[in-house]
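User: I'm new to structure prediction. If I give you an amino acid sequence, what do you actually give back? Let's try with this one:
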Amino acid sequence: MCMIEDADGYNEWSGESSHVARKTHKCGECHRQIEPGERYYVMKWKYDGQFDTSNICAHCRVAGTWLEENCSGFLVCMIEDDIAEHVTEYRGRSKCVARLKRLKVGMERHWKIKRGPRAGQLMPLPQLPSKLEPNLAHY
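Assistant: Good question. You get back a string of structure tokens that encode the predicted 3D arrangement of the chain. For your 139 residues, that looks like this:
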């Protein structure tokens, strides 16, 4: 089940804008440092009369895009948990699970390469996993 389905209400207002970092920022999803020159997204919303914002790195935004296409949205600061839930739910039932698992592992590792000569470097931007098969989609 998608976390957006369990949300206790909707934002009164929300918006998103894309930027190239001029200074460091922290990703609200994987919590890594977004370095100058990297693309990131600013999510803004108003809920219960309160405005809030969160920065999302381009890597985590790929996971958010998959959730938008398959679940009609996502909860900000909950993308990793939602992707992990989908990996467990669709294991053995969907072709997209392998790519979803790559997103999950990437977020766990803060999108940093763990071993080899490029250890510590930023992983390449992940590919968007395929959509869920129609018999598994839960619109």
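You can read the tokens as a compact description of the fold. Here is one thing that stands out. Residues 23 and 67 are 28 Å apart (CA to CA).
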